[in-house]
Specification:
5% helix; mainly beta; 20 strands; nine-stranded mixed β-sheet; 280 residues; globular; single chain
Length: 280
């Protein structure tokens, strides 16, 4: 699976972000965008507000791929259940929703030839981040389940998504909460020498010399949750989150895959990929 890395900002641009308004930052396939020399990008702290877009936060395909799968203006007609905001590649699955004043679509509904269901959750209204629809056999029953990935928030150092899964009969398959599953397998702290991480019993060390953020601006401890991204391919549902050590610096990705057990999709063992520039 392609590593997903987010842009790291230099300490000069560290800021406090509102829980309800965050700023959009261009991102590519990866969670941390690297330049040709393999070094992290230092963001321009003088960027004007006109170059930023705020999006309410109620946070792998590239942005272009998501645009390619966004319904056209002609497709986005109001239906009896709301406005169509996404459809599958084969046009057999549609997601509709009602636009709110908070910059989201709620009252979501999934429509197929076999069933029609109200769907939990919400999605941001930016068409670039329209719901993604995958048809994969993620529970091993020989039939394709419908996996819907919703974008619930995005911005500088933030990308949050959620996932809803239905079987071929329209029954919703429970999915273990990714945040909780990651927290059970991840811990970390700052020591006198640098950062110490433990992921499912494996230790990782990063000296302060390799960390861009000034020590006084580091978080009290490493955190996860600002980034949460799901993907579905080859019959596997995967969750990825980035380990954050300051408001603007991430140093690696935690990933696990789901497996179907006891009627639900359960999180597997997490693995950790430290970004190359943090390897001593």
């Amino acid at each position: 699976m392609t590593s997903k890395k987010w842009i790291i900002a230099a300490a000069a641009v560290i800021a406090i972000f509102s829980a309800t308004s965050i700023y959009t930052l261009a991102k590519d396939h990866s969670i941390q965008q690297n330049i040709s020399a393999g070094k992290p990008v230092a963001l321009d702290s003088a960027k004007s507000s006109s170059e930023m877009v705020s999006q309410p936060l109620k946070a792998g395909r590239s942005d272009q791929e998501m645009v390619d799968h966004t319904p056209s203006d002609a497709d986005q007609a109001n239906t009896g259940q709301g406005k169509m905001i996404a459809e599958s590649d084969d046009k057999t699955v549609h997601i509709t929703g009602t636009k709110t004043n908070e910059g989201t679509y709620d009252h979501l509904r999934i429509e197929t030839a076999a069933f029609s269901r109200s769907m939990p959750g919400y999605n941001v209204t930016n068409p670039t981040y329209a719901p993604q629809i995958f048809q994969e056999d993620v529970n091993g029953d020989g039939n394709h389940e419908i996996v819907v990935i919703l974008t619930t928030g995005y911005g500088t150092g933030v990308y949050r998504s959620d996932v809803v899964v239905y079987n071929s009969k329209g029954d919703r398959i429970p999915v273990e909460d990714a945040d909780t599953a990651f927290l059970k397998q991840f811990s970390g702290s700052f020591t006198g020498q640098g950062l110490s991480l433990n992921v499912y019993g494996q230790s990782y060390q990063v000296p302060y010399a390799l960390i861009l953020t000034d020590r006084q601006h580091l978080n009290a401890r490493p955190q996860i949750g600002s980034i949460m991204q799901f993907s579905a391919a080859d019959g596997v549902l995967t969750a990825t989150t980035a380990v954050q050590i300051s408001p603007a610096e991430f140093l690696g990705d935690l990933t696990f895959t789901y497996s179907f057990k006891n009627g639900q999709l359960q999180a597997g063992d997490a693995t950790f990929e430290l970004y190359p520039e943090y390897s001593s």
